[in-house]
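1st attempt posting a full record on here, be nice pls
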Amino acid sequence: MADIGVFEILGTVALLVLAVVVVLLFVLVGWYVVWKLILSHFRFFREILGMENSDEELDEQPGKKSRMKSERIAKPESSSEIPAHIRRRQQREAEILNRERESLSITKTAEKN
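the predicted structure (as tokens):
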């Protein structure tokens, strides 16, 4: 049997460590590229990572779609205590109620005429 020297063992361990480092770097660089190009544009992923922008920041950013006026009005005063998904649901419900009220008022004025 051939004797395995200390340098061969150290070389093998170094190669294994280097392989793991290269794989981890590849995964991290790949994740960064995918994040910058695709994932950062989806609110879902930003919320998961706790990076959700406030409504004011979204309104100030050029090139971004501004929020509807009714969403800003329907926003509760203590919105920091309410989770974002519940706040958005409340805003959608308020918008639906406003639309129903408007359609009812249009119907009533049409009936009067």
